[in-house]
Amino acid sequence: MKNSKVFTTTIGGREMSVEIGGYCSHSNGECLIRCGDTVVLTNVTISKSARDGIDYFPLGVDFEEKMYAVGRIPGGFKKREGRPSDKAILTSRLIDRPLRPLFPKGLFNDVAIVATALSVDTNIPPEVFAMIGSSVALSVSDIPFNGPTGSVVVGLVDGKYVINPDTSEREKSRMHLALSGTKDAIMMVEAGAYEVSEDEMLKAILFGHEEIKKIVKFIEKVAKEIGKKKKDIELKVAPKDVEKAVHKYAQTKINHMFATYDRAEREVREDEAMKDIFDHFAEIYPNNKNDIADILYAMKKEAVRAMIADKGVRPDGRKLTQVRDIWCEVGLLPRVHGSAVFTRGQTQALTTATLGSISEVQKLEGLDDDVFKRYMHHYNMPPYSTGEAKAMRSPGRREIGHGALAERALEPVLPSEECFPYAIRTVSEVISSNGSTSQASVCGSTLSLMDAGVPIKAPVAGIAMGLIQDEVNKKLHILTDIQGIEDFFGDMDFKVAGTKDGITAIQMDIKIKGINEEVLRGALEQARVGRLHILNEMLKALPAPRTELSKYAPKVISFSIDPDKIREVIGSGGKVINKIIDETGVKIDISDDGTVFIATADPDKASLAKAMVLSIACDPEIGDEFEGNVVRILTFGAFVEYAPGKDGMIHISKLSKDRVEKVEDVVNIGDRVRVRVIKLDKGKVDFKLLEKF
After folding, report:
1. Which stretch of DSSP H or E encloses residue 111?
2. What pairs with residue 627 in β-bridges?
3. Is the pTM of this model over 0.70?
4. How far is CA 124 from CA 73, 128, 130, 136, in A?
5. Quick one: which H or E segment has residue 604?
6. Which end of the chain is more exposed for a tag (fewer CB within 10 A), N or C?
């Protein structure tokens, strides 16, 4: 007999039900969430003990897309789901980021969160319910967790904020804001927007937080009623005597380490200090190497934070609001369609732009209505960018996340397909890294697109903000343009990208238990000032998009034909269109609405291909003239192919003003001729010969 309990609440005007106890009996916590026809199953489990030698919290989060959820069979040979899509990876990150800071410090047991979309109404996307379900499952489980959190998506439709917008609302919305938080503070922000102001973005976050508070209250009620007692897990904490001894011996060395603004010198001092400290304690505490490493990490963190909080001085000597030195370069790669290098301090991104025909857009296979993606941004960070000698590897979740953020930042300023009929790909190679590489890739992408001649509506720049909370008086210090060490030891990574007129993308991660309105407002304003400074520096390298495309880029022309004629242009099995492509060497794409795209580097070939398509798509009229080849000869006339797959006849009497005894006396098969239409009869075309070439 099924033994479960169902709880219901309303989110954004829709009823959401949470069923617990009927499924997945071996999980530490589970729930089945329904909203309309969208159903998400979430499970959380924890290992019985920590792995030997582990010195970090191994939290694993997976959002599982199942194609059966939308009534589809997966593509490919195997016909089963394979590697997760980029969308699934990004959703896994959305689940992970607000939850991770809420696990107790020192918990090193493996924790796995798996959210599976079982049924999906594309009008009610499953991602936000996977986020809520993860919080519910953890809250009712016996796994130690300092939640719950709530999650929503906020849209801005016709000047009004909307919670979890439906398909029609998403199409009209000026922003897509994914938001998570506790009842007290915001934990995670992920947004794309069409140049919204800082005030509009702040109001959206606060609006979403009000709904989050209701969700948290609902989850607390559920957990109180049926939640399990939390496990008593031994948290890994360094022994007090070891901590005291390390502090006494290492404090002076740690202080010396950060008494320089030069990163290279600091790293030399750090290497020397760490070797000396570990050598010193090797015999004293031979079994506490990981404990000593944890203590030293905390000491370094405390030293950096104290420098900023007490003295207002950052590790490289900058003021809190100061942006690192910037220089930019464009057009450095001759054969690519657009290229740029953006350098900010010791962070450097080389970005290229490639233009392709519309047929080269990315085809997506997922659980939503999106089928194609015209603009793609890919982010790569090789080991040499941080001075490491490691093997190259395929892009991980971090690379995919950073690429998606930059993609979201640039999308609102791209020209429409009608104005600029190209597929566009930018690739950012991070060739030197010291923090804020994702935002360097945003800046580099803007410059490479401009170098490629893409008529973007406005340049976009990105900046990363940080936060240090004074542990004594709880005062918060907002940092502009954080570098690696400030991200590593700080409390916030708040990335903001946009134009001079507004925000296009945001990503925020918090390591403490959330931030309030005052901090958000200050960070957004400080980011705006920094963003404008960076835009000014970028435009010194290239003030506006180039007026001409690279000579190596394909030239694309577009025009429209009657959609009813598409079948004739393509021909049986693609015979007609392939003949045009073979004869001209162009690429041809035809949309369902009759829009034709022709791509080639040769304008003459494009014109010829266009004429051939139009000759098929347009019904001939009396008086029209065509050029074509003689393809058949009979005793009474010659047949001329005036368009691919279409021909008409020149009667022997119309070959010349003079009497012609034999057709071959005037034309032969293969001759190129110019003809004029003189008669139309039920699809048949009669010509008069005008000229033989």
Report:
1. strand 109-119
2. 674
3. yes
4. 21, 9, 12, 19
5. helix 603-617
6. N
590 contacts 599 by C-beta, under 8 angstroms: no
pLDDT digits (tens, 9 = 90+) for 623-640: 988 888 999 999 999 999
For residue 341, which amino acid is it? V
Beta bridge partners of 651: 637
Residue 496 sits at the vertex; the CA angle it makes with 490 and 497, to the nearest 5 degrees, is: 145
Q: How far apart are CA 392 and CA 400, in angstroms?
A: 16
Burial profile 362-397: b = 16 or more Cβ within 10 angstroms, e = fewer: eeeebbbeeeeebbbbbbbbeeebeeeeeeeeebee
Give Cα 50 to chain centroid, integer Å.
34
Torsion angle (degrees, nearest 10) of CA 127, 131, 133, 138: 160
What's residue 475's pLDDT?
Answer: 79
What pLDDT digit, counting tens, does each position of 179-194 carry? 999 999 899 999 999 9
Strands 347-356, 109-119: parallel, antiparallel or unpaired by DSSP?
A: unpaired
Contact indicator for 424, 355 with CB cutoff of 8 Å: yes
**Residues 20, 24: Cα–Cα separation, whole Å:** 9
Residue position matching structure tokens 């530490």:
28
Ordered alpha helix ranges (H), 312-432: 397-410
Give the CB-side neighbour count of residue 479, counting CA atoms within 13 A.
32
Token pair in block for residue 602: 């040769």
How big is the chain by its Cα radius of gyration, in Å? 32
- Strands (DSSP E) along 548-653, which ranges? 555-560, 587-590, 595-600, 625-634, 637-643, 646-651
Nearest to 284 by CA among 250, 323, 322: 250
- The residue with tokens 């009474």 is 636
CA 523 to CA 526: how far, in whole Å?
5
Judging by beta carbons within 10 Å of its beta carbon (0-12, 13-18, 19+), is residue 420 exposed, middle or buried? middle
Q: Which of left, alpha, beta for 555 (phi over 0: left; psi -120 to 50: alpha)?
A: beta
Q: Would you tell me how many other CB atoms lie within 10 Å of the CB of residue 625?
A: 14
Query: d(Cα 202, Cα 528) in Å, to the nearest integer?
Result: 13
Pairwise CA distance, residues 652 & 635, whole Å: 8
SS3 (DSSP) at 333 = coil
